[in-house]
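Run folding on both entries below.
>entry_1
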Amino acid sequence: MNDSARPDDHYRFIGKPLPRKEDERLITGKGRFTDDFSLDGQVYAAMVRSPYPHARIVAIDAARAKAMPGVLGVFMGADCAADKLTPIPHDPVPKTRYDMKLHAPGGGAVFIGPQLPLPADKVRHVGEAVVMVVAETKAQAMDAAEAVEVQYQERPFVLHSEAAMRPGAPVIWDEVPGNILVDTYFGNPQATDAAFARAAHVVARDFHIGRVTGVPMEPRAALGHYDAASGRYTLYAGSGGAVRQKSELAAVLGIPAESVRVLSHDVGGNFGTRNRVFVEFVLVLWAAKKLGRPVKFTATRSEAFLSDFQGRDLVTKVELALDENGRFLAMRATNISNVGARCVSLSPLGKGAGLIPGSYAIPAATLRAVAVFTNTMPTNAYRSSGRPEVTYAIERLVDAAAVELGVDRIALRRKNLIRPKDMPYANAVGMTYDSGRYEENMDWAMAVANWKGFPARRREAKRRGKLLGLGLANYVESSIGAPREETRIKVQPQDLSGPAHVDAIIGTQPSGQGHETSFAQVLSDLLHVPAESVRIIYGDTDLVRVGGGSHSGRSMRHAATLFATAAVALIAKGRAIAAIVMDVAPESVSFSNGRFVSRDTNRTFDFLELAGEAARRDLPDALKDGIAVVTNHEMHDPVFPNGTAICEVEIDPDTGGVALTRYASVDDVGRCINPLIVHGQTHGAIAQGVGQAMWEQIYLDPDSGQPLTGSLMDYGMPRSDTLPSFKTEIAEVLSPTNPLGIKAGGEGGTTGALAVVVSAILDALRDYGVRDMPMPATPYAIWTAIQNAKARKAAE
């Protein structure tokens, strides 16, 4: 941590690298993942999925399937319609006060493309569920699904967003004849045009940040139960937001929200892909009532590749205007998001829209933000939703400007980075960055990566016949997410079930981020109780009534803000109870060094001791619930984590093989609650971004629309032996937007990774004149670029 960014350090547990207490449970087989749950009498569901990207459903013949052993039911779109199931109420437009406000062409509401549990008219992407078969065993259900005969009438399809926008393109939804569901302009076009008119240099590039998928460790799964006596439905399904899913499931089923309980405990991989309701979640609940048996669905790995919500897929066209001294004057951008066959989330488009200038002081900018329907799987928010894409664009553009102007890329960045004295900084498209020391991050990262030693390393690599390249990318990202959150905290006395402890129920739930540890650290410091005495309770909608779940780096910021507010109320309540217990005047009681004390007695209590005393007394009505509070808030102000990533790669020019030799980052997360957890999050986030830059790609055959990356044999993933040891540092420039100064620490590693890896590869290939490298930068792609460059040179 650099001294200039050091926060107050008077906390006992905040800022300490406590080991995660949930890990022992998870690594000893005591996790509660979806497939760990089984219910008496449960049966199994299998889906019949569309083999076509676009086709009308002509007829479905399920007679043979219904007659097969163990089959209990075969359900299709007509059955859903008969039972009046409604579309999943996806609400894709962000709702916080300072979001970039997206709208349909010409203004107005966005048509999202209704997602019924099973379609009755036509299919709009390969892998769309058409029929559900339920049987006594999973094998019987899968065999019967194979026996269902669906007659399709194929229709023209379109896979790429730009192709979908062209006149005459196949129409996905009749309600949107041009396939464009969002078309919104931001910025100041007059100022931007004037700046471009007087610019000494203009640099322009077009990029496609391709489509990837989350590849969770546990494939998507759901277990549905219906209790006829109470009329209640229960869903077991890992997700990023149980409260939201409860209300959406109830809406589809046409029942009150209180009739649905969602249990979402441990999540075997998310990063945004599981934050929205899947059709199978509805279907298992619906079938459980119809059959009077619990129904379980678990996707195969290939099904997950076909039907999980996917990520990225943005086309961005960017231009940068510079003056004769290399100062940035203005920027233009057109961002085109491929939302797939239905619009599940506009978070990637909206969050990216506000950050197109990146970390740089660009006085004027204009942006056209477009969302387009295609015959592909819907895209959803995916780790650092929308920010890696726009960071890739601006950082690649700055590198290109340095090459075209013949100037040093670091000097060009240094000249244009936003200064600390300008914070808070309103960028040219309307986002106001709260805090940050961008140039310090860059200098620190360069020192960590031994930037100065690179020329010697490059010469040594050249002697071995290798090409060494060095990349750098600055980033700024935003963290906000759903604005509402609630916590219910109670200090529980010792009883037969165990020692005294603090229960904290909260709506933001983990999917691997270590909330059970880090949340406890915050409450421990605020209440002066041992961290191990704090229990974080989440993921059960019978307990959690309000909450936005885990996404957009919101969890710790919301939780800590709630806890800080709740602590004040808990102390006030504790003082009132302590006055009764100690038989002193309430105004004489204070809370000092973790104990309730009074000048009128030598008796003192900490929170845990006081809870035991309170349990033994007949308290007034206002204090009957003991030391307990309910705290709600709405948080609309975004925060802006930021940092710098540096990557070094070595390329074999004979094969195109590329190896990452070093990777360093500095990430400003605001106040860091647990550096051990933050470093782990950073490592995983880097790996996720590097994966897309070098290996990961959802590839669809342009002639048939078929996904050709439908298994782990086809879809490249980072592994421990393909990544170097990371050198990561944490900067702590406190945000003024919340009591503890927290920003976010889970997504920064991904945000800069795409840009920095490609930057390093292009730096290694610079002597060949290679100026562009589409992702993923596979060995074949690199080898091809080298061969093409040699051919061009030979032809000169």
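>entry_2
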Amino acid sequence: MVRVLIREAARSLVRDLRFAGLAVVLLAITIGATTAVYAIVQAVVLRPFPFHDQDRVVVIWQRDDRRAQPVIEVAYGEMIDWRARSRSFDDLAVVGSVNWSLTLIGPNAPEQLTLSAVSSSFFAVVGASPILGRTLDVRDEDGPIPRVMVMSHGLWLRRFGADPAIVGRTLSVKLDSDGPATPMTVIGVMPELFDYPRGAEVWVPAAPLVRKFAVALGADDAFRGLRVFFALGRLKRGVALDSATRELTRVMQTADTAGYSLASAALVLTPIATYLLGPAKPVLWTLLAGATLMLVIACANVAGLQVSRSARRRRALAVRIALGASTRHIIAIALIESALMTAAAVAGAVALAFMTTRTLVLLAPIGVPRLQDVTLIHTPVLMFGAAVTFATVVLCAMWPALVAGRIDALSVLAHGGSVAADPRGRRIQRAVVVAQVAIALTLLTGTALFARTLQGLVRTVLGFDPTHLVAMNVTPATDDLTRWNAFYDALIPRVEALPGIAAAGAVALRPLSGPIGWDTQPMFPGQVPRQPATWGLNPYMNLETVTPGYFRAMGIRLLRGRLFTATDRARSAGVVVVSESAARRLWPGRDPVGQRLREQSYRTDAALGSPEGWQTVIGVVEDVRYRGLNDVRLDLYLPAAQATGRVQQLMIRSRANPADVVRSVRAAARELDPNAGASEATIMSEVVKAESAPWRFLVQVFVAFAALAATLAAIGLGAVVALAVTSRRRELAIRAALGADRARLRAVMLREGLALVVAGLVLGGLGAFALGRAVAHVLVGVRPHDPLALGAAACLELALAVLASWVPARHAADVDPIEALRIE
């Protein structure tokens, strides 16, 4: 019996290949896309990180909205206070907010390694154990420099050939490029999957490094004043995140921080999985929701096409029922047809899923963790694919089976009654089409918003010109600031004299180096240091130490006043340059040029040239995005000769090959200092491209989903109008017999489709409004409710709707008036 039903269903589909082919293609695309996106979500989001009981581990930092500082790093001493007084955590630790580096001297050629500075409790807090040896303990935190290291699995495998005898071996390393080599003992090797902080190759105790920094910076209490860490905490079982935040806030506010407290700062506690995934988590969940929605819509479309097909075959179905075919038999045929189409779609969906997975991985922005682990051959993914296939069969067959089971054979044969005229089925199909149009409009509007954002990022928002701009990290072999500056004073003219070099300048940290940089809180005339009521509430500013030629090399426009020159020396009057946003914020309605401030990094010997150590604003430049493309800061520039910080990144505007630039600059640097180091070139246009990758990815994804949604909406609308033509064919024939011309008949059916489109556009406008609010934080240079984006999306959707309605409307105009006299 089953074989008979399968053969009958197969013959029925073969007789209507156009319908079957369209249904198979729609299902293959949506099943494949949904499965591919789930494979990525499973690998990146759902699979646990290599931490024990990861839901209890949180990352902690501070923020100060009042002073426009979203991320304030934590001092080592603060963690010690919290650890001693908090009752919400099993333990707390610190980890460097960024990775640093050390140079491995032996046993082979020197190699620079990525270093993460952590407290001894770090590994216990994250719940990670070594595969060899041990991790850090409190004894390792003693001394002025680190003496032990824990090694990553990748470094152990690559550099030491997975030698199990590595534990206990002493390696020679340099913590500074010009410092002496020091011995460091390997005490453990971490598992292969442990990669936190991301990219770390060795972990060393942080406390000795803090002591080393204190000596180098002349800091009184670097353990409380040096904010270069994030804190980590392991919550006690049963303690909620909100409760721990409130308790730790009380501890922070009452702790004796010896003048280092931040009066208006607030604590931020974030689960470690959320922190590591960052924006990737909501984006991937949105992708999965969108793909699933497209699958549901595709199933509804296939079901609607089957209903339309049933309308065309209503007399044949009625005859079969009259000849003895049971309702169960008719429903079984509908189910088997759905199963056969889905089975055929699965074959294409598998190939499409592999291609979609690879494409999404390639298009995804750099920084999304664990993308390299994405695979379709994985039990949860295979189970998800099976569930999707079963759900597709049910969804595609449910409506057609219901309609087929309600056919009144006697009415059809006697009076021409139509299954297509079923009012409830018509209402369902119309509602589906309205929803499809609304979803398509929402996605098209999102595409337009992100496309305009991407256009704005490239055109206006950077504040500098990345074209032909190259960055190099150049470090002389000295720790003396005066000799360091003299090296750069001699190097920059030599570089500018090289063939093909238009300009050169130096900065402490180039734009788009990451979210962490140098922040400063300047003081203004009339304010007293360390008084929260005055100086303590001043906004934090992004501090950039630069040489005089930096602005020209970067292409940063001067808006008012002048730039630094060679006459702004160490003992000259103190000068600064500020950004346009800083000028508006600090001196609203006043001329910023000539205003005075005092910045903490101002050299004390330079203060001899300025009354009472004040610095004068000499110029205003346009805003530059130093921390990120959508992160506007208040920028403050100091001349390198008057700052305690040092420049180390050479910015070169050149039309030469970057490899040639590196060779020439390295040669020029080593003529001045044979031991000077020079990194490979960083091409700033590539950096900007990488930074804008999240927006490009969103544009590409929204384009794909919007195109699919618009196609599904057009197919669904065409099916509705075609079904309306079938059910109203007698009415149309009567209109034709009474004199209605072809244009009037087309207009009648076009109105049928356009009414649904207008309803969908209204609903989609609300969806676009909600989407704009949801993505406002990632839009740059465009309003979330941009009328141009919504208007363009609506016009495109309306054009597609007219095109989709035109074909069945044209068939309506071809109706034969003789049918008005015929009883079906």
